Write the structure tokens for this entry.
Amino acid sequence: MGRSPCCEKAHTNKGAWTKEEDDRLIAYIRAHGEGCWRSLPKAAGLLRCGKSCRLRWINYLRPDLKRGNFTQQEDELIIKLHSLLGNKWSLIAGRLPGRTDNEIKNYWNTHIRRKLVSRGIDPTSHKPINNIIQPQEQEQEEEEEEEKKIKTSVLNKQEEEVLEEEERCPDLNLDLRISPPPHQEPFKTGASTLCFVCSTLGGKACNCNEQAAGAGSIIISGSGSRTNSGYDFLALDYRSLQMK
DNA sequence: AAGGGAAGCAACCGCAGAGAG
DNA sequence: TCTCTCTGCGGTTGCTTCCCT
């Protein structure tokens, strides 16, 4: 039977968006809010596919987007999050206010990947590139793989994912739920904090101290030491993170 | 100045998951 | 429980700009 197309391709524009199209989309969303992307183009008088409108809004037109270069701190945060989450760009973007998954994905592929390689780190595994596996280690890895197979065969998919994540980062609490934050006060260890409410990063005065304590903060220290995953210069307090 | 390659980024495509009926 | 629709995500493509020769 096949999948039905998301829109009438014959009558839709493709490629770069014009100023007029942008204006129409902005005006429509301001008046009616986000959502119903399928019907939005027709209602807004746009010859675009709903998906295209959604993408344009989310990646480019949203008023809360932070434009401009990534900061060093954002860089390191992306690397750290990528080492924990992999190519889960939307999750990573959720930790970087004002940045989109597409933007982070592009930035990763064009800048960070190269940066890691030049540091001698494999951007996929976050391990040193010249980490040659010795026969004994390989045997051990195979054993672990076998054990994992047995383990995962008796777990459902959700449990499996949580287990995998915990194995990769034992400190990461993935018991994600909407609940009062574990810390009523942001850490004050002389390190700088990232506030997810007002997007303040790098030790600047936070606009919303009270809310920030409830929204989850990332503590960024400058120790610069290395762990197995390669980066320990970000001492993240993942337990205070909450899903968007 | 012009051409070609590399880099950067916006946008598209196809798939998967969630939810409704 | 199944089917269908809609939305969101990640991978990929292709256009534009920059830089080097």
User: Anything to note?
Assistant: The first helix of chain A runs from residue 19 to 32. Residues 3, 14-17, 49, 51-52, 55-56, 59-60, 102-103, 106-107, 109-111 of chain A lie near DNA strand B (CB under 10 Å from a C1'). The beta strands of chain A are 192-195, 217-220. Residues 1-5, 146-163, 165-244 of chain A have pLDDT under 50 and may be disordered.
